[in-house]
Every structure is written in C-alpha cells, then in structure tokens.
C-alpha cells in the first residue's frame, strides 16, 4: 500500500507526520520541490510527545500516496495541486487555515476532506516541534477521522465540519493579526490591554459568519485561546522569520467581503501587509 504523504514540512506538517507515523503508518514528509531526500528522526515535544524516523523529501520526488494530508499554507495550495493530483490515489485531507480554499484546490476540490486542528505548533529546530494542547476536528465517519484515529492527536468528530472551519477562521482572524503585531502569545493579549481591539474586530468578523452556531463556537474557541493558550500564533512566527502570512485567507477575507465596512480589520490587514513588505 502506498504511504501517507504529508504535504508541507513546516511546524504543523512535521508534527502531523510524526503523529501519524507513531501508529505504524508509513509516512513521507514532503517539502517544497527540490528538497533533498533525507532519512532522520523528527521529534514533537510538549502536549504531543513522539519521535519518528521519517523520509523527508521534495513533493516532486514522491511517486504515489494512498492519502495526502495537506499542511500547506493557504497561499501554497494552488501551486501544489498538480503535484498532489499526480501522486494521490485516494483522498486529500486539508488542515490549512483559512476559508474560500475550494478555489485554491481547483479540480481537486471534490476530493478534499477538511480537518481542523486546535493545537498550537512551533518549530524549535529543523527536526523538533513544540506542541500545545488541542484536538483535530473531523466530520463523523469521514476519511480524516479514520486517518487520525491512532495518531495520538485526540479526534473530535462533528456533524458539520464547515461550521468548525468557520469558527476556527473567526478565532484565527482575531488572534493572528493582533498577536502578530503585538508580539504576544495568545494568552497575553487580554492582559496587555487589547480586549477592546478584540471586541471591535469580532463585531466586524461576525457579520460574515454563516450561522449563529458557527459564531458561538468561534467565540468559544477564541476565549479558550485567550485564556489558556501559551502558543505564539503562526502569523507571529511567520513575521519573525520574514515569511509570507495567510492574512488574505483570514482577516483579509472579511475586508474583501465587506468592502470598506470593516475599518478595524482593514487597518490590521494593512499593518500586517506592511510588515510583510518590509521583510521582503
């Protein structure tokens, strides 16, 4: 049987590959095209304590996959689609942040199943990832629930994964730009006096939430992160590395849909983009 291929060798992809491999599944960790092939031990620390010997190579060097688990940044999906389409014999599981991702997946969209991670991830070294507590949300009876069932990452099955995706989008779209610009871990945002900014942004984002249930779940996730998560959000980590961020697929989506009726979101999006421009 072909291996499971985890596409994306950042903090999330590395940790997911280690978790899936620990159940005895053959896993390949696939980085960008041209990544040199190595065989080495990868380690996850913190909430998820695992280690695994993995093949790490470029996605262009992979020949086949039973399932592709995408831990790609949203802006990298479209360029990876032809490579994933070539190697994947089964389904695709997308763990990427953001909404409107169906457009990025193009022809593959009908084969994509979504999972939502509530864990925090941070690379400590090229082969070590720190993790904070959370689960992977999967639709009941779907492919993601089966793939992650023995991974060591707790699985929470839900009836409507799109509701959870919107809820995570809402929380991420608040936590990420504020935490990134302030340089703060999630659980220090409120104590730093930024609750008014959180409230202002949440009022704007709530206008495009698809349902009251999704909004309520989003607020629950947001408050848990603000109170309990010591994770430094992915956008803060990206800015610190001088890397692109997913702002267009998070808070930027609100700006796109409301077109001038979300001043707080617009300012934060502009500030994040200016930081990205400065890093170029």
Verbal overview:
The chain contains 10 helices and 11 strands. The mean pLDDT is 95. The chain has an 11-stranded mixed beta sheet. The chain folds into 2 domains: 4-158, Rossmann fold (3-Layer(aba) Sandwich), CATH 3.40.50; 161-279, Orthogonal Bundle (N-(1-d-carboxylethyl)-l-norvaline Dehydrogenase, domain 2). It has helices at 11-21, 77-87, 102-105, 143-148, 161-182, 195-205, 212-228, 234-241, 251-258, 263-279, and strands spanning 4-7, 27-31, 38-46, 50-58, 67-70, 92-94, 112-117, 120-125, 128-132, 136-139, 155-158. The chain starts with a strand and ends with a helix. It is an alpha/beta fold. Strand 3 (38-46) and strand 4 (50-58) form a beta hairpin.
Summarize the structure.
The chain has 280 residues and is α/β, with parallel strands linked by helices.
Classify the helix fraction into a percent range. 40-55%
User: How are the strands of the largest sheet arranged?
Assistant: 8-9-3-4-2-1-5-6-7-10-11
Strand content: 15-25%
Q: What overall geometry do the principal axes of the alpha carbons give? A: globular
Report the total helices: 10
CATH homologous superfamily label of the largest domain: NAD(P)-binding Rossmann-like Domain
CATH architecture of the largest domain: 3-Layer(aba) Sandwich
What is the helix/strand order? EHEEEEHEHEEEEHEHHHHHH
Largest sheet: 11 strands, mixed
Whole-number count of domains:
2
Mean pLDDT: 95
Termini separation: 43 Å
Roughly how many Å is the radius of gyration?
18 Å
| Low-confidence regions | none
Secondary structure class reads: alpha/beta
Q: Given this structure, which CATH class of the largest domain is correct? A: Alpha Beta
Number of strands: 11
């Amino acid at each position: 049987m072909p291996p499971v291929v985890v596409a994306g060798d950042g903090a999330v992809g590395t940790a997911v590959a280690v978790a899936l491999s620990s159940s005895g599944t053959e896993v390949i960790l696939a980085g960008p095209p041209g990544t040199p092939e190595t065989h080495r031990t990868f380690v996850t620390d913190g909430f998820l304590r695992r280690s695994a010997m993995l093949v790490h190579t470029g996605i262009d060097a992979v020949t086949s996959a039973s399932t592709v688990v995408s831990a790609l940044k949203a802006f990298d999906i479209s360029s990876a689609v032809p490579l994933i389409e070539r190697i994947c014999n089964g389904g695709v599981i997308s763990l990427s942040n953001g909404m409107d991702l169906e457009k990025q997946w193009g022809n593959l969209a009908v084969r994509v199943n979504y999972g939502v991670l509530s864990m925090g991830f941070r690379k400590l070294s090229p082969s070590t990832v720190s993790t904070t507590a959370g689960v992977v949300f999967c639709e009941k009876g779907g492919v993601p629930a089966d793939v992650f069932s023995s991974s060591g990452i707790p699985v929470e099955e839900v009836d409507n994964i799109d509701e959870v995706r919107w809820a995570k989008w809402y929380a991420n779209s608040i936590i990420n730009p504020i935490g990134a610009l302030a340089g703060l871990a999630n659980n220090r945002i409120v104590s730093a006096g930024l609750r008014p900014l959180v409230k202002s942004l949440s009022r704007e984002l709530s206008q495009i939430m698809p349902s009251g249930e999704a909004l309520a779940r989003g607020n629950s996730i947001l408050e848990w992160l603000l109170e309990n998560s010591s994770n430094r959000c992915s956008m803060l980590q990206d800015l610190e590395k001088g890397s692109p961020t997913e702002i267009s697929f998070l808070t930027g989506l609100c700006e796109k849909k409301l077109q001038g009726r979300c001043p707080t979101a617009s300012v934060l999006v502009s500030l994040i983009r200016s930081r990205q421009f400065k890093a170029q």
